[in-house]
Amino acid sequence: MINFKIKIISLFLLTFALTSCEDDLEVKPQDSQTVSDFLNNPDNAVKLVNGVYNKQLDYNMYSFSWIGMTSITSDDADKGSTLSDSGSDKHKMDNLTFEATDISFKDVWNGRYDGIYRANNALFYLEQLAIDATLKNRLIGEVKFLRALFYFDLVRCFGGVPIVTSNIDVNDDELINELVYTRKTKAETYAQIEADLLDAIERLPLKSQYAPNDLGRASKGAAQALLAKAYLYQEKWMDAYDMAGNVITSGQYALLPDYSHVWREVGENKLESIYEVQATLTLGLRDYTNVQGPRGTPDLGWGFNTPSLNLANSYQAGDVRKNATVMFVPSTLWDGFAAPTSWTNPRYNYKAYQSPIAEPWNGDKGTTAKNFRILKYSDILLIRAEAGFHAGMTGEAVDRVNEIRTRAGLPTLTSVTLQQILNERRWEMAMEHDRWFDLVRTGTAQSAMAADGKTFITGTHELFPIPLDQIIQSGNRLTQNPGY
Question: Model-level pTM greater than 0.70?
Answer without folding.
Answer: yes
